[in-house]
Prior knowledge:
- This protein is of the alpha+beta class.
- The protein is 35% helix and 23% strand.
- The protein folds into three domains: 9-199, Heat Shock Protein 90 (2-Layer Sandwich); 205-366, 2-Layer Sandwich (Ribosomal Protein S5, domain 2); 395-576, Ribosomal Protein S8, Chain: A, domain 1, CATH 3.30.1370.
- The strands form five sheets. Strands 5-4-3-6-2-1-7-8 form an eight-stranded mixed beta sheet. Strands 9-10-13-11-12 form a five-stranded mixed beta sheet.
Amino acid sequence: MPEIKVLPEDVVSKIAAGEVIERPASVLKELIENSLDAGASRVDIEIKKAGRGLIRVHDDGRGMDREDLRLALGRHATSKLGAFDDLYSLATFGFRGEALYSVFAVSRLKLTSFRAGADSGYSLEGEGGKVIAELPAPPVKGTTIEAADLFFNTPARAKFMKSDAAERSHLIRAVEEAALASPGVSFRLVIDGAGILDLPSLPGGMWENLKNRAAVIFGKSVYGGLARVESKTPGMAVYGLVSRPDALASTRVNQHFFVNRRPVSSALLRQALYRGYGHMLTGRHPACALFVELDPGAFDANIHPQKRDVKFSSENEIFKTVSNCVYEELLSRQTAAVVLAPVAGAKPFSPPDVPAYREAGAAPSPAAETGSLFDAAPASSPAAAPGAAPAAADWRAHDLSYLGQLAKSYLLFEADAGLLVVDQHAAQERVLFEKYLGEFDRGGVRVQPLLVPLETELSRSQMETVLKWKDWLKTAGFEVEQRGPATALLRAAPALFYFTQPAFAEFLGYLSEVLGEPEKAAEDMKRNIIATMACKKSIKAHDFVKPQEALRLMEDLRGTKDSYHCPHGRPTLFFLSGADLARRFQRSGAL
Length: 591
Ligand code: ADP
Ligand code: MG
């Protein structure tokens, strides 16, 4: 008896499906790509039950005749690739001929199509890879594909699905990315009967349509901070919309990269983008819809079944071109700003040096380069200010007398014949942070209804996340509500905090990103995140501090667990002892 068996076809097809189809959004992405490959000028999408119930994609593309309809369902059945060498000169999204085959294996599928010139349309129906019915259909231009009951025959996979809200936000993102990449095609998305996106392609050209879409997809506030970039070198074009340096966000959620109009996740492109901002990033993140166009032979999208990874043949050149393209755009704006406002103290922008791209691993992640909230966990030892003695480990042991405020930012105190310099915002953040966490941990966040609710625009997928976390946010003291498809409303906030509208917009945008991968985050990590963010956003209301307020702040700071650091890990204070001062003035003894 041989031990080796050839797997039966239905097992093979389910294995293949597992590679191509990770979740409902992967099905949707494949179906949209097929519609685009068929030359569609509009794509209408209907989703039920977060894609598990139904994913329906209708297009007005060239359609299939009866025979092609049958062939389309076979494995490695494609009209797009003839010989292996064609792989390197492809202009279509598809080429593997595996998508329909895979979707068919794990759903109840119905294809309806009509090709111009045929005597009738046709439809094919089947489930789990078996055709059940074949019928003539009306001659409606294009193709409709309906995938129902996804994963009905692969219960193990169905179990891996995230919550409906999470799957919905992936589905929405798939449409958003396709719409950004194909501004000449109209898209409509309806989920459970509700219109989510309506993105008609209007006359006026690529940029007009791209901008209109960006305004809807990013939300108005992010969109308002975008600038257009464009550059061409032989064999490569880079263009798109990126955040102006004065409009960076605390979140990375609005970054979309495309290579030859395929949405990709590429560490190289992300790093190149960040490098373009040089020193202007300060721990914040640009939004972007950034497109790279290359000869099809200059990259390989074939390395991953879902075609989301790409490998470039000349990484250094792409890195340089992208970062220079972004940098030059920013430089021109910066120069304008310096000319317009020399007295406002605008700093001239120093060019980023653009080293060769280093392979992943050796290269610092953008987060490490720019310092994200997660990386900036509070340091455990008191930080020393350069040139000064370490913060007096015992500052709390001394009486303080208030000397005054410097630059509306620093509070100066005399302590034990030395000078204690306190960053008032950092100190306030620390105090608020611990007070708020204290309330949260005791289960009693004090809440203050807002007289005038604050409103902000989000992207659709951010909105989904926020809604999903609505109840949790309520226990955190934030009453957030949906108002219109992409508008969120803040009705009440913790009494400790004070938000301006732009601060609230950023706060919610950031939260929707960190909460977006929620199952992973432990409860106290989420608490820390929300506390850190809220503190950062909520104060700065008034910068002038009266003496008694300064002293009260120091009393509060005295009571905190880590008075030396703000919640982001930056120092709150440093101390110049009498001996330090004496040394600076080259006195021999202490005062
Ligand atoms: P691939 O896109 O890699 O060729 P698919 O399994 O996605 O493989 O599709 C198989 C074939 O079915 C395609 O090559 C194409 O000829 C045909 N097809 C699929 N969807 C459509 C559509 N919406 N309109 C016209 N033809 C389609
Ligand atoms: Mg395809």
